[in-house]
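stage 2 :: seqdesign
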């Protein structure tokens, strides 16, 4: 490493440490910097053919995601990987091959989709994928995107990729599903090593383009079986957080381009700014409070124009107190999803101080729930059914996340969770139970995977056969039974209590409502055939869909009411 680079980093770290004295004693200084502006208008009519606008309600307790009628909305969905810029095995003499699956929307018609292949970790994302998600009862999709495809050359944004994203948004809108546009990354970038290393080892690395990946010559090698435990990944992340060569400014510009494209699209629930942020060589809570959350505030400033933080220069390291200039998007109707630092997944504890982030009102704290997988016990090889950690069980992560969200003035959402299939009855079932208890929505990782991967909802294709393959297998039965569930999609009572028994199909919900409140809506999948009944101060109607699904609408009459679905199962879908 060159001497100038060492001096540059030393100066940046010293400056960050000096700012600690100003920002760590509490939220006093930050709350003075973050202006308490009135909440932006979040309701109003949706664009023609669009879904109702979502926003964040701010009651005395934990904020929650709500629709244009003020009802709590639970988003259930999955995460497809077909628009991620994965590395793939190709010609080693061509170090930067184009995306394996086309990003041209013309290649994805109603009746055609590129063939699946074992060369790729995931299948292509096709129109029927969105339709299948809707049939399982998902009302949202977290659409994972890659910065490297959005801005392949510095300052040049791909209109073709934006049109491909827009195509998927259109598919979702036709199925009544919201889309969370997720700026996704794993281990920062597939460009963290030289071409030979990329070809051999970086199959599941994705995110930043080559021009924004600065590793300073660190060798790319994963340790402890974890792609993130990699010196080149640490260095690339650190250079991003300290805005080396202005690459963080470019990232903010890329998010602004995305926000400008979808500013008036209500089907887009919002933007997930940065997936699973890795601290690089920094340590929490300094990373989160001095680098990560100030970065989030700058992105929010840029795309909403709320103007928090001190006016600072750009193109260089921006201290925690700095805001960001208005990039002219003025999008004040979409949700902004803020991922916690990656180390929170390891501890199931907050790794930041919960200081104010922004005066923007539509914030959502995105937790990734991987208890017994990436927590200490899982990394140590303990069995999930006999683990000594977390001490508070599955609830530890959720209860603490509620406190984090309330401190930040944000709603709570499980942006990612999943596990190996053999642990579905233990891990998946308990995660879903906590989500019920805490009234939080989810996005399951992942929709479909290839090559023996086990986190997908489907079995996956045979990776011994590299000829074109059209599917990713059949639905894993336990996952269909657990994830295609009866649940309230919207309710005027944000403190309702509900429970779904995936073994029997039985469901119960207790809520309160005033006369004139908008109705509570409950989704019932095709597989659940039990009788629906409502008691108390409410009236019920049931709409039967053509494919066997049912939508229950219960209008409160003033007082307590309950909704019951008696036990009863039909055969699961299995294969579409």
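stage 2 :: out
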């Amino acid at each position: 490493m060159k001497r100038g680079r060492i001096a540059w980093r030393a100066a940046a770290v010293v400056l960050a440490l000096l700012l600690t004295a100003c920002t760590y004693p509490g939220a006093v200084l930050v709350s003075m910097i973050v202006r308490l502006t009135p909440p932006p208008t979040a309701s109003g009519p949706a664009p023609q053919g669009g879904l109702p606008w979502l926003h964040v309600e701010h009651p005395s307790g934990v904020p929650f995601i709500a629709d244009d009628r003020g009802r709590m909305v639970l988003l259930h969905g999955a995460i497809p990987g077909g628009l991620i810029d994965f590395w793939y095995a190709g010609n080693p003499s061509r170090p930067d091959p184009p995306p394996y699956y086309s990003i041209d929307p013309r290649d994805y018609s109603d009746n055609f989709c590129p063939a699946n292949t074992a060369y790729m970790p995931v299948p292509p994302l096709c129109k029927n994928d969105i339709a299948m998600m809707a049939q399982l009862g998902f009302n949202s999709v977290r659409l994972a995107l890659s910065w490297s495809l959005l801005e392949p050359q510095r300052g040049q944004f791909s209109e073709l990729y934006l049109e491909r994203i827009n195509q998927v948004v259109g598919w979702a809108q036709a199925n009544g599903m919201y889309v969370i546009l997720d700026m996704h990354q794993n281990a920062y970038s597939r460009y963290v090593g030289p071409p030979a290393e990329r070809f051999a080892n970086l199959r599941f690395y994705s995110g930043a383009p080559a021009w924004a990946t600065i590793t300073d010559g660190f060798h790319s090698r994963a340790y402890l079986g974890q792609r993130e435990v990699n010196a080149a990944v640490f260095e690339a992340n650190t250079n991003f957080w300290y805005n080396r060569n202005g690459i963080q400014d470019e990232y903010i510009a890329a998010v602004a381009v995305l926000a400008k494209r979808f500013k008036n699209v209500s089907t887009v629930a919002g933007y997930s700014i940065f997936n699973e942020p890795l601290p690089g060589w920094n340590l929490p809570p300094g990373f989160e409070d001095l680098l990560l959350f100030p970065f989030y505030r700058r992105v929010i400033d840029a795309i909403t124009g709320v103007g928090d933080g001190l006016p600072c220069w750009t193109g260089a390291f921006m201290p925690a107190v700095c805001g960001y200039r208005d990039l002219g998007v003025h999008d004040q109707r979409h949700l902004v999803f803020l991922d916690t630092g990656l180390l929170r997944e390891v501890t199931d504890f907050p790794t930041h101080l919960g200081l104010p982030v922004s005066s923007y009102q539509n914030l959502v704290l995105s937790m990734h729930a991987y208890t017994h997988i990436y927590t200490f016990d899982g990394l140590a090889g303990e069995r999930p059914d006999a683990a000594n950690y977390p001490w508070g069980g599955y609830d530890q992560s959720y209860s603490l996340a509620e406190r984090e969200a309330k401190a930040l003035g944000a709603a709570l959402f499980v942006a990612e969770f999943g596990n190996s299939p053999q642990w579905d009855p233990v891990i998946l079932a308990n995660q879903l139970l906590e989500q019920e208890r805490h009234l939080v929505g989810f996005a399951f990782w992942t929709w479909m995977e290839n090559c023996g991967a086990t986190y997908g909802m489907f079995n996956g294709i045979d990776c011994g056969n590299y000829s074109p393959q059209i599917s990713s297998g059949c639905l894993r039965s336990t996952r269909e039974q657990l994830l295609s569930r009866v649940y309230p999609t919207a309710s005027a009572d944000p403190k309702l209590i509900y429970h779904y028994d995936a073994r029997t199909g039985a469901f119960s919900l207790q809520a309160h409502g005033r006369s004139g409140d908008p109705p509570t809506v409950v989704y019932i999948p095709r597989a659940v055939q039990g009788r629906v009944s409502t008691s108390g101060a409410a009236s019920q109607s049931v709409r039967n869909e053509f494919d066997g699904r049912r939508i229950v609408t219960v209008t409160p009459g003033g007082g307590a009411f309950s909704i019951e679905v008696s036990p009863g199962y039909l055969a699961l879908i299995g294969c579409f």
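stage 3 :: structure notes
- Residues 488-576 form a domain with the Maltose phosphorylase, domain 3 fold (CATH 2.60.420).
- The chain has 14 helices and 17 strands.
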